[in-house]
Amino acid sequence: MVSAPSLGEQDYVRGGASQIPVKILVVGHFAVGKTTFIGSISEIEPLTTEERMTQAAEHVDDLKGVRSKTTTTVAMDFGRLTISDRIVLYLFGTPGQQRFVQMWEDLARGALGALVLVDPERLADSFGVIDLIEHYGLEYAIAVNHFDGSPLRDEAALREALDLLDDTPVVTCDARDEKSSADALTTLVRFLLDRARQEQ
């Protein structure tokens, strides 16, 4: 049996150039589409920790509006996206349920910012997530995951409902679509770069 050749550092970097790794969190409430988002955009096979939901979970997790959901993330999702010869994003998806909040401290450590996925039909479920992101001092952008048949929300009304600062980016995306997901991430990265320049 022939063993596979080992991969060196150069195999992970385009053209052998030195790259800057950037840790980004993809967060949101339960069943908002975080696993789908990372899966749609990752250039590697994403790492997921999804498990089948049991009947016992129905008494813990609010399945209102998501009755078709059969699996849930129990640790994290992980993906990678190279956005230039210099920058590679490492995407960490957090579990959305309150009982997994204790994992956030480890996942947030070293993160440059966060993309907060929001369901326009369950805005109130996002309050706790945004509170956590602000607690850890992370800059963030809002990505409204537009589900089939859901009405488009007025941005001003959405900002008011989520109590966002005027400069917090808000975009609409489809977590199933690679280009749409890429556009949302690009918005976040540009925002983070602008913030970094302002602080210099």
From TrEMBL:
Protein name: ATP/GTP-binding protein
Record organism: Streptomyces exfoliatus
UniProt feature coiled coil, ranges: none
PANTHER family, A to Z: ATP/GTP-BINDING PROTEIN-RELATED (PTHR42708), GLIDING MOTILITY PROTEIN MGLA (PTHR42708:SF1)
A Pfam family of this chain: ATP_bind_1
Keyword terms of this UniProt record: GTP-binding, Hydrolase, Nucleotide-binding
Similarity comment: Belongs to the GPN-loop GTPase family.
The keyword GTP-binding belongs to this UniProt entry's keyword annotation: yes
Domain of life: Bacteria
Gene3D superfamilies the UniProt entry points to: P-loop containing nucleotide triphosphate hydrolases
Record lineage: Bacteria, Bacillati, Actinomycetota, Actinomycetes, Kitasatosporales
InterPro entries on file: Gliding_Motility_GTPase, Gpn, P-loop_NTPase
